[in-house]
Amino acid sequence: MGTPCHFALFELQPDFRIDQQELAARYRELARAVHPDRFADAGEREQRQALERSAALNEAYQVLRSAPRRARYLLALDGHELPLEATVQDPQFLLQQMHWREELEDLSDSLDLAGVATFKQRLKQAQQQLEDQFAACWNDNAQREQAERLVRRMQFLDKLSHEVRELEERLDD
Prior knowledge:
The protein is mainly α. The protein has helices spanning 6-9, 20-34, 44-65, 67-77, 91-110, 113-137, 144-172. The longest helix has 29 residues, at 144-172.
C-alpha cells in the first residue's frame, strides 16, 4: 500500500486554496494521536510504525503549508512532476529576478532595515499575485504550461523570501 495523499491525511479536498488555520489545527490533533511517545510501551514494530506515521504526517504538513510546495504537489498528483531546480525559460522573469537580487544586495550593503521592510512587502504582494494566478489555472489541462511556469516563479520568490528573512535577522543583531 502506498502512502496516503497528503490532502486525504488531513481530510481535505485536493485544492490549492486551503484554510491554513484548519490545516494547523488538524495537524496538532493528528500529531498528538501518532506521536511516538504514546507508543513507548508498545512493541518494536508498533514503535517503528508510529515513527513512520509521525514522519509522514510532518512531511505532508510541510508540503501543504507552503504554497510553492503545495502547488508542485498538486501538479505531481496529476502526473506532472516538476524538476526541483527547474530553470525558468522566461526572459521577463529572469530580468525581474536579476533586479530583485541586485536590490537585495544593495539593501544588504547599505544596512537599510526600512528598505528591507519595503522590499519584503513588495515581495509578499508578488507572491500573492502568483498564488492567485496559480489557483486560477492549476487544474485546467489547457493551462498546464502556465501553471508550471508559475510554480517555478513561486519557488524563486520563496527562496528570495528566505534570504530576506536571513538579512533581517543579520541586520537586527
